[in-house]
Recover the amino acids of this structure.
DNA sequence: AACTAGTCCAACCGCTGTCAA
DNA sequence: TTTGACAGCGGTTGGACTAGT
């Protein structure tokens, strides 16, 4: 047998919370805490609400240090960059924005930010031209690269996300062979050694976040899957997973955008990273954002979009 | 002033993984 | 081992508000 029923749904109040209910809930939680049991809480607090509803009200509204109001440009960039990487994992995104709730971010994305980005796409198409790229390397396109412009390091110093679930929503866009710019650079092959060199050349100062795939045990036959690690230094196992394709964004005082990818098997090692200088933005990037927005609901977790025989993917967001 | 369309956001709904009985 | 409640999450909805006509 399972547990006892959670609550009598016929006798719970729905709809907007009154100030009286708010203060009851707040007082109770401040006094006794949640006790790890939301279902029992409303009864104890004298509320005719479902525990679920109490939890939501507390987390999204009554909890201390909740930030309401306009999002800053920096918060915009954080949301954009994480959305491009992990998709609509609002709770994870919210965890990186102290004081913001997942619901808040979700609403903000759906009502404002998404439109803002779409607007940027329109503007960029009609007004801007790609700036010349000084590097001797190729210039790949990368979704959202322009949004990282002047973006400071955003992770809280004590931030932690030890483990993420597979990140694959980014892959179809970052790695799509239909992307002509990427395709043009698809001869690149990235190896662990090249990344080590890169890391040595651009040593991490504070934190880094790494998204990617390559666990051999996962859904795709080539072992493609995703993992994210985060910390002050790169772990050995992270390095050992890096093969084939990589992309990196660093941001801070001096934005560096790095991308490296390639077809995998049998190809010779062409350890190439491409750097995109600070302030660069390309119309193509915004096109990718638009495409991501349009397709985000469809392509998340669809590893099949990637040619299993061609690539191992590793996308790395690296900042210093 | 009245109506309509668009926007915002709090709250609900339903799904999933976890865990207690 | 099975069953079903719980916690948490993302998607969606509907009412309040605002801007435009």
């Amino acid at each position: 047998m399972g547990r006892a029923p959670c609550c009598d749904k016929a006798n719970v109040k729905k709809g907007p919370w009154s100030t009286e209910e708010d203060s009851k809930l707040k007082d109770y939680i401040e006094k006794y805490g949640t006790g790890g049991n939301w279902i029992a809480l409303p009864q104890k607090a004298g509320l005719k609400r479902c525990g679920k509803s109490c939890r939501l009200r507390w987390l999204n509204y009554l909890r201390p240090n909740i930030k309401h109001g306009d999002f800053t440009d920096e918060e915009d960039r954080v949301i954009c960059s994480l959305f491009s990487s992990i998709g609509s994992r609002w709770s994870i995104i919210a965890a990186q924005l102290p004081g913001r709730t997942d619901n808040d971010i979700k609403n903000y994305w759906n009502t404002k930010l998404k439109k803002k980005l779409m607007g940027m796409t329109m503007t960029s198409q009609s007004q801007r031209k790609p700036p010349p790229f000084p590097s001797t390397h190729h210039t790949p396109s990368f979704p959202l690269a322009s949004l990282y412009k002047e973006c400071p390091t955003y992770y809280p110093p004590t931030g932690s996300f030890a483990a993420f679930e597979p990140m694959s929503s980014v892959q179809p866009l970052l790695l799509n062979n239909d992307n002509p710019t990427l395709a043009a650079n698809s001869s690149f092959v990235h190896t662990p050694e090249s990344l080590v060199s890169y890391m040595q050349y651009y040593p991490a100062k504070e934190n880094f976040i790494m998204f990617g795939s390559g666990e051999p045990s996962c859904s795709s036959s080539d072992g493609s899957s995703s993992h994210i690690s985060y910390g002050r230094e790169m772990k050995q196992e992270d390095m050992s997973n890096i093969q084939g394709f990589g992309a990196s964004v660093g941001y801070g005082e001096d934005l560096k955008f790095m991308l490296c990818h390639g077809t995998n098997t049998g190809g010779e090692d062409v350890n190439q990273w491409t750097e995109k200088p600070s302030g660069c933005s390309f119309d193509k990037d915004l096109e990718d954002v638009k495409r991501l927005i349009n397709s985000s609901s469809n392509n998340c977790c669809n590893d099949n979009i990637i040619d299993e025989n061609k690539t191992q993917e590793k996308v790395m967001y690296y900042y210093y």
Q: What stands out?
A: DSSP finds eleven helices and six strands in chain A. Residues 1-3, 14-17, 50, 52-53, 56-57, 60-61, 103-104, 107-108, 110-112 of chain A lie near DNA strand B (CB under 10 Å from a C1'). The first helix of chain A runs from residue 19 to 32. The CA atoms of residues 160 and 198 of chain A lie 24 Å apart.
